[in-house]
Amino acid sequence: MTAETTHAETKVVDGVHYHQYDIVIVGAGGAGMRAAIEAAPGAKTAVISKLYPTRSHTGAAQGGMAAALANVEEDSWEWHTFDTIKGGDYLVDQDAAEILAKEAIDAVIDLENMGLPFNRTPEGKIDQRRFGGHTRDHGKAPVRRACYAADRTGHMILQTLFQNCVKLGVEFYNEYYALDLVMNDGKPAGVVAYELATGEIHVFQAKAVIFATGGFGKIFKTTSNAHTLTGDGVGIVWRKGLPLEDMEFFQFHPTGLAGLGILLTEGARGEGAILRNASGERFMERYAPTIKDLAPRDIVARCMVQEVAEGRGAGPHKDYVLLDCTHLGAEVLETKLPDITEFARTYLGVDPVVEPVPVMPTAHYAMGGIPTNNDAEVLSDNQTVVPGLYAAGECACVSVHGSNRLGTNSLLDINVFGKRAGNNAVEYVQTAEFTPLPDDPAAFVRGLIADMHDSDGTERVAVLRKELQDEMDKNAQVFRTDESLEHVTGVIAGLRERYKNVAVQDKGKRFNTDLLEAIELGFLLDLAEVVVYSARNRKESRGGHMRDDFPKRDDENYMKHTMAYLSGDAHSSDAADHIRLDWKPVVITRYQPMERKY
Amino acid sequence: MSTATLDAPADSDAITPFTVTFIIRRFDPDVDEEPRWQDFDVEMFATDRVLDALHKIKWEQDGSLTFRRSCAHGICGSDAMRINGRNRLACKTLIKDLDISKPIYVEAIKGLPLEKDLIVDMEPFFASYREVQPFLQAKTEPEPGKERVQSVAQRAIFDDTTKCILCAACTSSCPVFWTDGQYFGPAAIVNAHRFIFDSRDDEAKVRLDILNDKEGVWRCRTTFNCTEACPRGIEVTKAISEVKQAIMRGKP
Amino acid sequence: MSVIEAPRTPRPATARRTNWEKWGWIYMRVSGVVLVVLIFGHLFVNLMVGDGVKAIDFGFVGGKWASPFWQWWDVLMLWLALIHGSNGMRTLVNDYTKPGTAQKVLKGALFVVAAALIILGTLVVFTFEPCPANAPLELLPSFCSAN
Amino acid sequence: MPATTAGTPTSPQTAKKQKPGGTLYRGNEGMWSWVLHRITGVAIFFFLLVHILDTALVRVSPEAYNAVIGTYQTPIMGLGEVALVGAIAFHAFNGLRIILVDFWAWATRHQKLLFWIVIALWVVTMLGFVPRHLINVFSH
Ligand SMILES: Cc1cc2nc3c(=O)[nH]c(=O)nc-3n(C[C@H](O)[C@H](O)[C@H](O)COP(=O)(O)OP(=O)(O)OC[C@H]3O[C@@H](n4cnc5c(N)ncnc54)[C@H](O)[C@@H]3O)c2cc1C
Ligand code: HEM
Ligand code: SF4
Ligand code: F3S
Ligand code: FES
């Protein structure tokens, strides 16, 4: 049928394949493909993805994408800006939030015009629905702002973007793992990737590189994130000595299926579902007497964990609470919440119509990541831009989400900043020259792979990873104290030592996923260390970061972004030896920090 | 493929693991001439998924076992494979829904070139997907800054086929596709359907023309394997029939 | 958005032949419905009425074909069934062989066989002589009695 | 500009060996009805070829025709005719089922039920035909 794609290679030296593109995009999720749609028509572009594009985790998103279209009721992007800032517990850069809210409208319309099948109003316009934290007139009442396509908004976004990439003939390198960013003279010179199918190494020389590699929820055990969300992109940038921003802020969504972490949308509680402990008590009444189960995500998550910690958890191991939907009736469940109903039935064998569903908070979204400015340009410190290096999506931190992201704002983020990254990269490469590659740009990756491949170590990847995830869940999840963080710091240090002795069993070249899991574990360990280190340093509670020993927000000392740098000996076991923390001021334009009350 | 049994496992079932035998069709292109079957015994809980079993094998017994997976809850389409002779997603197939008194057979999907263990080359699959022009082609420009208008009813016509996650469970279950792999296959037709019946699209004719081909819809022999294999519950054969009728009518 | 040319411009008109696949598909269905009547009628009259298969002989056939009704019935059945069958066999050939010489040969053979048998059958039915000279009278249909 | 470039590059045309096989696919009514339809279709086709040729013998001579048709009346061929009629009946009824499935959404959803109706009709037909036919074959 279709002529087989042959990607132009410039040369093959010592088994390393060289390619040259103006722009290389790493990651083919929502952010990566949105960037590609801007970049490909304007410059020679390649998209490298470790998964087939449609496998990216953007496809898992259900709820919707926020934009003040005002299709069903009065709304304005200013209100959206305010909600975003307040939702992020005022750690949001307000100029960025303004861009997000303002460009949201175009972002949604772009998607519709590209073919996204949004649900419609009776007049045939894009339908909108309510979502947590989105209000009219600065908190007066909930507003219908989330544009949605059934409960498959993320799926539709991912498919639509992929379809348009097909239309534009975007060049994809699927199942290529980017493992290194080649920097030269403070500028990106290219990306080194490992081809999963063959085990060959490819060097992509590029004038501009865009990272869009998604999140890193897999540092936790219980997570709504995919197995493949191991934070490779963030880790690659970190290893280059570039900073990471606000890494301590991770969002825990209250209602993940217990033990599995598969997400049950906030909409369930919106429809009236109730959280109960083992004795059937509606415990949220005790913690939040007025709004009860509809308290913000961070608060609910914290209360659930407390119930379990105090022995009131349900189940054989008393390790979860129950989401009771039985009083909603089959009708509401089948029509309004069909997906979660199916998930509960399929994965827990629990029918929400007749039984309460076991739930526990699940690691959901990384607010932190690679710092960028509003043009999606990566920063090497508080303001210096790395020319030609861009980041967008969950791996980036603009920061539009501050310390707590509002539901539906991430699908928005990937579209707005993905587009900006693409456009700006095109503009940049018009005038930029290729940065020369060093003599052997693949040296680092070749070494990494060879070491891993040939290691005769005794440690197993799965064992280390499980220990990391278990300990992160126990110590750095919803509740954090200096003690728990100190403990997990020690654990990570130990794991990093043992990681040096890790071995893979698969010694083949082709589709060596064993080897890949080992490399991914390296990124997980690095990032977990930064998360914990940053968290220890923030002695306050704000948004997704809840310190039991410092339960209050402390604007005086901590109204600022954390910037973590890799310095010194990256392999030393003591984090303090190689992580340096700094601060970056929060951009405040219009809204002064207030106490966050709903 | 909604879950067959809804009865919740008795509590004791849920907490006592039992041993399940998996017989997996292995193929390592570096050493094997032909695929071979290999047994693994795994401790499982009733609520575990086949994907969990594969992970347990990979992580605890044999690191070289190779398969694709990502989301682990049936939305990314990575892990279509043949489980006890039928195409399913490993992450959506629970142990309790299988007969564990007998070994569970796991093998790669059929009809696409086998690369390693449970991994096949998906490129021919995506090639026929691309062939049907799976993207919106509208001749009229919408009002600047506005959406194209589409009624709720117009949107409903193609709703079913928008659910596709391109997992290939359907195409690789199709007996016609197995014979020579030239047939476009149900997934490509489903994705063509999604645009042919979208009121905003103006190029339905072109797609109908593409599918009115030797390797197009007429090769479908209504065996319904595709419909039964689809993890998203898409009525694939019905969609194919609708495309056939649109071709006969000459318009959607 | 499209600075580069959309990669999938409609296929060149040359690739668009008259589409036999569609007509083949429709034909299978139309002929199928008609064949149900023709074949079941044929089977019923030949196998169920009277002594069934035991009663079939030259005389029986001659008796039937004396009537244009049965002549046309059988000719129609011949045409429809043979074309239906050969087109069905063509599907099988498409499925189980790769494009190439072997496939061409098989399809050619199907065509030749079907065409030959259709011509043969049609000629037989219409040029059939129910009362050939020199044949023993007891083998012939009853109406042949007196020459 | 490469014509289509939305795919994974694969190593230049390494003619990949297709390795079919593995276990038998466990399809349901739809697949097995198709298998039977195909087998019966082919069987009928080959019978038809022979049947046209033997019938054509009426043009040769009454003796020739009767000699050949006589073999149709032996008990063994009698059983063969049962098989033939069984095949035709199934192919015909299932053919009608396929046509319904093709043109009627309800039938597309209820194809399994229709398959069992086909089987039921087939059984009824055979119950009507087989005894009568076998009596004809084995009597006299
Ligand atoms: C269950 C769930 C529900 C959600 N619901 C909502 C919602 O309703 N509304 C909302 O706004 N947000 C929601 N979110 C959040 C939102 O979906 C994600 O934050 C967003 O989709 C991330 O998109 P992305 O493009 O940054 O990354 P992803 O879509 O995760 O894509 C990452 C890409 O990077 C590639 N990649 C990674 N590492 C490498 C490497 N080393 N080399 C090459 N490629 C690499 C991957 O292959 C992939 O293509 C939800 C998240 C989850 C988990
Ligand atoms: C009795 C009435 C008949 C009906 C209702 C009927 C119906 C059909 C139909 C609808 C098909 C198409 C199947 C599909 O597209 O999936 C078909 C295929 C076929 N038919 Fe018939 N048919 C009949 C008689 C015959 C006869 C007499 C022959 C033999 C000469 C025959 C041989 C075939 C063959 C070989 C196929 C192809 C099978 C395949 O592709 O799998 N049919 N039939
Ligand atoms: S139609 Fe169903 S089975 Fe086929 S690719 Fe799409 S989701 Fe998978
Ligand atoms: S399995 Fe194949 S034959 Fe048709 S009904 Fe589905 S495409
Ligand atoms: S792992 Fe995503 S569909 Fe199974």
TrEMBL record, chain A:
GO terms of molecular function: electron transfer activity; flavin adenine dinucleotide binding; steroid dehydrogenase activity, acting on the CH-CH group of donors; succinate dehydrogenase (quinone) activity
Pathway involvement of the protein, from the record: Carbohydrate metabolism; tricarboxylic acid cycle; fumarate from succinate (bacterial route): step 1/1
Topology of the protein relative to the lipid bilayer: Peripheral membrane protein
EC number, as in UniProt: 1.3.5.1
Listed PROSITE patterns: FRD_SDH_FAD_BINDING
Entries under InterPro entries matching the protein: FAD-dep_OxRdtase_2_FAD-bd, FAD/NAD-bd_sf, FRD_SDH_FAD_BS, Fum_R/Succ_DH_flav-like_C_sf, Fum_Rdtase/Succ_DH_flav-like_C, SdhA/FrdA/AprA, Succ_DH/fumarate_Rdtase_cat_sf, Succ_DH_flav_su_fwd
GO cellular component: plasma membrane
Modified sites of kind Tele-8alpha-FAD histidine: 57
Cofactor detail note: Flavinylated by SdhE, about 5% flavinylation occurs in the absence of SdhE.
Cited SUPFAM superfamilies: FAD/NAD(P)-binding domain, Succinate dehydrogenase/fumarate reductase flavoprotein C-terminal domain, Succinate dehydrogenase/fumarate reductase flavoprotein, catalytic domain
Keywords: Electron transport, FAD, Flavoprotein, Membrane, Oxidoreductase, Transport, Tricarboxylic acid cycle
Oxidoreductase is among the record's keywords: yes
An example Gene Ontology biological process: anaerobic respiration
Cofactor dependence: FAD
Binding site for FAD: 27-32, 49-64, 232, 394, 410-411
NCBIfam families to which the protein is assigned, alphabetical: sdhA_forward (TIGR01816), sdhA_frdA_Gneg (TIGR01812)
Protein name: Succinate dehydrogenase flavoprotein subunit
TrEMBL record, chain B:
Segments forming domain 4Fe-4S ferredoxin-type: 154-176
E.C. numbers: 1.3.5.1
Protein family: Belongs to the succinate dehydrogenase/fumarate reductase iron-sulfur protein family.
GO MF terms held by the record: 2 iron, 2 sulfur cluster binding; 3 iron, 4 sulfur cluster binding; 4 iron, 4 sulfur cluster binding; electron transfer activity; metal ion binding; succinate dehydrogenase (quinone) activity
SUPFAM superfamilies to which the protein is assigned, alphabetical: 2Fe-2S ferredoxin-like, alpha-helical ferredoxin
Domain 2Fe-2S ferredoxin-type, first and last residues per copy: 18-112
Keywords tagged on the record: 2Fe-2S, 3Fe-4S, 4Fe-4S, Iron, Iron-sulfur, Metal-binding, Oxidoreductase, Tricarboxylic acid cycle
Organism annotation: Agromyces archimandritae
Cofactor(s) annotated in UniProt: [3Fe-4S] cluster; [4Fe-4S] cluster; [2Fe-2S] cluster
Keyword match Iron: yes
Name by which UniProt lists this protein: Fumarate reductase iron-sulfur subunit
Automatic annotation (TrEMBL), chain C:
Transmembrane spans: 26-49, 69-87, 108-128
Subcellular location as annotated: Membrane
Keyword tags: Heme, Iron, Membrane, Metal-binding, Transmembrane, Transmembrane helix
Tree of life domain: Bacteria
Main subcellular location of this protein, as a coarse class: membrane
Pfam families per record: Sdh_cyt
Gene Ontology CC terms: membrane
GO-annotated molecular function: metal ion binding
Name of protein: Succinate dehydrogenase hydrophobic membrane anchor subunit
Automatic annotation (TrEMBL), chain D:
Compartments (UniProt record): Membrane
Keywords: Heme, Iron, Membrane, Metal-binding, Transmembrane, Transmembrane helix
Signal peptide, first to last residue: none
Any one biological process term the GO annotation gives: tricarboxylic acid cycle
Molecular function in Gene Ontology: electron transfer activity; metal ion binding
Transmembrane regions: 35-53, 82-106, 113-135
Gene3D superfamilies the record matches: Fumarate reductase/succinate dehydrogenase, transmembrane subunit (1.20.1300.10)
Pfam families the UniProt entry points to: Sdh_cyt
Cofactor(s) needed: heme
GO CC entries: membrane
Region feature Disordered, mapped onto this chain: 1-22
Biased composition (Polar residues): 1-15
UniProt family annotation: Belongs to the cytochrome b560 family.
UniProt-listed PANTHER family: SUCCINATE DEHYDROGENASE 2 MEMBRANE SUBUNIT SDHC (PTHR41910), SUCCINATE DEHYDROGENASE HYDROPHOBIC MEMBRANE ANCHOR SUBUNIT (PTHR41910:SF1)
Protein's name according to its UniProt entry: Succinate dehydrogenase, cytochrome b556 subunit
Organism: Agromyces archimandritae
Source species taxonomy: Bacteria, Bacillati, Actinomycetota, Actinomycetes, Micrococcales
Gene: sdhC
